[in-house]
Amino acid sequence: MKSPFSQRHGVVPVLLTEALEFPALDERSVELGPPGLVALGGDLSVARLLLAYHSGIFPWSVDPITWWSPHQRGIIEFPKFHVGQTLRRVMRQKPFEITVDKAFREVMEGCALTRAQGNWISPQFIDAYTALHEAGHAHSVECWKEGQLAGGIYGVACGGVFAAESMFYRVSNASKVALVSLMEMLRDSGFAFIDIQMVTPTTAAFGASEISRREYLTRLRNAESHLAKFPS
What we know:
Layout: E1 14-15, E2 37-41, H1 46-54, E3 58-61, E4 66-68, E5 72-76, H2 85-92, E6 97-100, H3 104-113, H4 123-134, E7 138-145, E8 148-158, E9 161-169, H5 174-188, E10 193-197, H6 201-205, E11 209-212, H7 213-223
Parallel strand pairs: 1-2, 9-10
Antiparallel strand pairs: 2-4, 3-4, 5-10, 5-11, 6-7, 7-8, 8-9
Helix pairs in contact: 3-4
């Protein structure tokens, strides 16, 4: 069968809409486009998104849809997760009501509104990940204050790995409290680690680090055997 990917020199492999397939990352010896870009096109169906995450790939834009797997992957490991004293004091005061999967779409919309122009959380992404959530694979943790959504975080459960996509806050510390709450839930539910794609100053303060794509793919495969289930 002919491969659905263009292999011409200097051309990014094009993912055809009808082909539910991605390039094998560990066999790519030559980078054919921007670092980490592995495919273009396809769709944002539940089936394709699940295949992408289980393959170590995630989408980052639409028109066209771009699929990425960075050479260096940001992760947070539970033994290295660090919560500073200031945030610990905030959390002891229990300033927020914490819920799970109560307002998934609203969390995504909050993340989209707080990003700079050109962000990847487009209406198409919100629709696609909401469908993934309704299928039981994408989840959110929300922080509420006086009945209003103060912040939250959302992502995708993939075997024993949780891929955190984005977080936002409208009240100070709400996104950080949501992240800490998420980490505690994942640790207690048997997850191996959390994938954050790229390390930022905020996640670095929590103990995030980078590993190579090869190591990430190995850990992703190993985590498939974890009996992890996102808490309801």
